[in-house]
Design brief:
136 residues, two-stranded antiparallel ribbon, 5 helices, mainly alpha, Four Helix Bundle (Hemerythrin (Met), subunit A)
């Protein structure tokens, strides 16, 4: 599956804004995860926070994505350079798609796995991306 994009002027400030917004949203989402019945909402919002990190990386390179595949793939590539394997983010993208467009109800175990991924990797990646923004 391809993703449309267009070239833009690299924008450190906007890239940083994406990361900071994603960090704020993730804190709220993780608090919300304690509410029964919120699994679909949690999964969608956690996915969006990871997508925003990928979008920040693209903006830093002067690329504006018109979809979701490119930011997620960019984040997966970045995570690999940092010594992490986050290929499961593409599965998260598909899970979120099924929730949004096919009325899929995620299971408790799917929700727990997404929370585990977020708790383990999100802050690490956000910090590394902020470092990259600062260095560029």
């Amino acid at each position: 599956m391809s993703d449309e994009f267009r070239e833009i002027v690299p924008d450190k400030s906007k890239a940083k804004g994406f990361v900071l917004r994603a960090e704020k949203d993730m804190k709220i989402i993780l608090e919300m995860s304690k509410i029964n019945g919120s699994t679909n909402l949690i999964i969608r919002d956690i996915y969006e926070c990871f997508r925003m990190l990928g979008e920040a990386l693209l903006i830093l390179r002067g690329i504006k994505s018109e979809g979701h595949v490119l930011p997620i793939n960019e984040l997966i590539k970045f995570s690999e350079t940092e010594g992490h394997n986050l290929r499961m983010l593409d599965s998260l993208r598909r899970l979120r798609h099924n929730i949004n467009y096919y009325a899929y109800s995620a299971t408790q175990s799917e929700g727990e796995e997404v929370l585990r991924i977020a708790n383990k990797y999100f802050n690490i990646l956000a910090d590394k991306i902020l470092e990259k923004i600062k260095e560029s």
